[in-house]
Design a protein that fits this description.
The protein has helices spanning 2-12, 39-47, 64-78, 124-130, 135-146, 150-169, and strands spanning 23-27, 55-58, 83-88, 97-99, 112-114, 177-183, 190-196, 199-202. By secondary structure, the protein is an alpha/beta fold. A hairpin with a 6-residue loop joins strand 6 and strand 7.
Amino acid sequence: MAALVIEHLFKKQTSISPDQYDEVILGCANQAGEDNRNVARMALFLAGLPVNVPGETVNRLCASGMSAVVQAHRAIQCGDAGLVIAGGVEHMTRAPWVLSKTSTPFGRDMELFDSSFGWRFVNPKMQGMYGTDAMGETAENLADIYKILREDQDLYAFRSQMKAAEATSNGRLQKEILSLSIPEKKQNRFILIRMNLSKQVQH
C-alpha cells in the first residue's frame, strides 16, 4: 500500500526527478509479515524510486506516522535533507501469528502470539512493574479512573466520523485520498478502496 502511494506522489510531481528525494520515512508499529524489517525501504523500491534513496521506518506505535512527519520536518530544519516523503503504513489484518523459541534445546514450552495487536514475548519484569493490559483493557481502566462515560465516548466518535464524512463529500480531502481497484480472488469484480496519501515534506 505504501509503495502505491509513494509511486503516485513522485509521478504526480513531474518537475522533481526521483533521485532528488533525500529520504523516505514511514511510521509502522508492527513490522510483521510483508511489512518486514524496514517497510519504508521496501516501499520505495517497489514504488520505483532509485536505490540511492534511503528509507527509514519509525515505531512510536499509534503515533508512528506523525512521528515520521516530525522527523522529516526536523531533518529539513537541520539541513540534513531538502525533500522527504513521510507518512505511515499498517496492515494489521495480514500480520502473522508467531512462535516463541523454547527455553531449552528441544524444549516444548513455545508460545503462540498474534503479532497484529497487543503484547507479545512479554518481559516478566515489565509485566511485574507496569502490567501488560491490551489497549481495550487500558481504555476500560482509564474510563474507570477518570469517570469517562460511554455516552461521551460514543458522541466524540460520532462527531469525528461526521467531520470526516463531510470533509470527504465536499472535496476538502480530495487531494489526500487515492482510490485503488483490487481484484478479488474468487470473483470477476473489483473492490474500490481509498487510502490517505502520505505527506510530502519539502524545504
